[in-house]
Amino acid sequence: AIQRGTQLGIEDLNAQGVEIGGRKVKLELLSEDDEANPSKATTVAQKLVDSRVVAVVGHFNSGASIPASKVYADAGIPQISPGSTNPRYTQQGYATTFRVVANDDQQGPAVASFLANTLKGRNVAIIDDSTAYGQGLAATFEATVKAAGIDVLAHEHTTDKDTDFAAILTKIKGRQPQYLFFGGIYSQAGPMAKQMKSLGLDVPLLAGDGVQTPKFIEVAGAAAEGTYASVPGLPKDKMPGGKAFLDRFQARFGKPVELFAPMGYDAVHVLVEAMRRAASSEPAKVLAELRKTRYNGVIGPIEFDERGDLKNGPITINVVKDGTWQAVETVVPAAVK
Fold it and tell me: Beta strand pairing status for 123-128 and 151-157?
């Protein structure tokens, strides 16, 4: 989805015609697969650097973006992640790291606030997948629910490769939680939801953006019903450029938009706008202009703070109802308590 969104952005800009410093240019997309593997991510990053790319849209997983970011920083190449939410990604002191999604310091508390204020939860159990993404999201969620007076009955750890959660879930069932929060992605959350039902742990599952995908419903089947998940950004059909983008994406690729495609599309436009202002594609000059970004994209207004984080990024809470994800409410960081 990210690759397609990025590709569509490049195709649109090339069709419009791009001039940088008075010279017409053609944008080209080089794509690599980091396989969500931290060591592969650095190999891929070095390959892109060696290919003399002028900017990078990626990576998706925080566990890939964080190690890869050093490679780009050493080369002075700007990097905009359309999907990495771990706060550490932009807290390393690199001038090259940006993102166009809210981070987990915002997303975890948003889910916690929803649990406390909307669901009126009194207690919760937590599982994370031991990745940079899952642990970071679970940690900010846990800190916020505790501050709100919600009891954390258990915090268990698994890995992003496990699919058998019977032992952990049985242990948690004995604590009799009202809710279960999972910090991880759909490939583990799907089997987990099924096993919760089979073990009689009949409580709602809460999660973050790694679970808020149609793939989770495919994997979990009927057990997906009632699952809540946050996602950075507005609901796709509520994004300022959402309807037009959804239609064009469907027409171009014959597939519906998944979550992060609009972020990839906007990241390309943000980079090219910075190049236009700099009158150059030289990375150092582009980086100086990226800090000044004020761009109205498909996802809404895009500005970066001093670390490269998206300012005032909204977060939407969704629920699986009748086999589809449906938006419940949207919050912005300033509204998260």
Answer: parallel
Q: Give the whole-angstrom CA distance, residue 229 versus residue 132.
A: 18
- How is 15-39 classified by DSSP, letter by letter? HH-EEETTEEE---------TT-HH
Beta carbons of 233 and 316 less than 8 angstroms apart? yes
Reply yes or no on whether the pLDDT at 335 is more than 60: no
319 Cβ partners below 8 Å, 6+ apart?
226, 227, 228, 229, 325, 326, 328
Q: How many CB atoms lie within 10 A of CB 154?
A: 16
d(CA 156, CA 12): 46
Q: In the numeric block, which tokens belong to residue 12?
A: 């649109």
pTM of the model: 0.79
Q: Are 310 and 302 in contact (CB under 8 A)?
A: yes
Statement: residue 78 has pLDDT above 50: yes
Between CA 118 and CA 111 the distance in angstroms is 10
